[in-house]
Write a structure and sequence with these properties.
Blueprint lengths: L2 E3 L10 H5 L5 E4 L12 E3 L10 H4 L5 E3 L9 H10 L5 E2 L11 H10 L5
Antiparallel strand pairs: 1-4, 2-3, 2-5
């Protein structure tokens, strides 16, 4: 089993999860050209993830789930993480967090954006 970063991370890309990952399996896609067909988010390489779970509570956007607990609305994100993590060119391990955690209201608005909160 591995953890999955869902679309709740899109355009948020905090990086707090990266800082606590003991095996550096969380990556961002930043190709040299600057253009990408992937969403602007972080991804977990399931072949590298040790399922330690340290990333999940570190994510201020509540975007990370064990792969068997991913909400139905984000089921496609399991394959996206696996597909994305297999690409070599353009993937980098982030080391910089955004300044400060998001406010509760921002997290709730992001969850509403993806249909998790009504």
């Amino acid at each position: 089993m591995a953890h999955v970063i869902t679309r709740l991370c899109v355009d948020c890309v905090d990086g707090a999860c990266v800082d606590v990952c003991p095996v550096d399996c969380i990556v961002a896609h930043r190709p040299p050209s600057g253009a990408s067909d992937l969403p602007n988010q972080l991804f977990i390489d399931p072949s590298e993830c040790t399922d330690c779970g340290m990333c999940q509570p570190a994510c201020p956007w509540v975007a990370i789930y064990p792969d068997d607990e991913v909400p139905e609305a984000f089921a496609d994100d399991i394959a996206l993480n696996a597909q994305s993590a297999r690409r070599d060119e353009g993937f980098v391990v982030l080391r910089t967090k955004k300044d400060g955690a998001p406010a509760y209201e921002e997290v709730q608005a992001n969850r509403q954006r993806w249909g998790l909160v009504r």
